[in-house]
Amino acid sequence: MRILMLSFFFLLAIGLEAQDKGKNRFEEIHAQKVAFITEKINLSVDEAQDFWPVYNEYRDKIWDLKKSQDRIRESDLTDENARAYLMKELEIDEKKLALTTEFYNNISKVISYKRVYLLEKAEDEFRHKLLERFRKGKEKN
Fold this sequence. Notes:
This protein is mainly alpha-helical. Helix content is 85%, strand content 0%. It has one domain (2-140). The protein is built from 4 helices and no strands.
């Protein structure tokens, strides 16, 4: 019984450590993204204080919308649930567009539209570099 309990706590500790590593990795990537964007759009310290709260609020809302998207398994696919899925996707896309429009209006009070455009480019570039790094890491394993 004692060995069983020790094994349980050992496995629990390993699981918690893995979660911490995943969380730390996410935080590390987020910090890299902040630094990358800050450099690419040339944010001053004063601008950054106003920029990041607006940006983070927008990204959180977009993330919540993405999490609300249902997934449909092909084995469960019928015309009826496919139509419902597609209509829900359109609804989510409309909400994303409204959020993005609101974000552009809010962030343009902090930085110019030219820099908003550069922000969009920087996000794409960061995402691309992150995917490349991920692919290279998978190739090594």
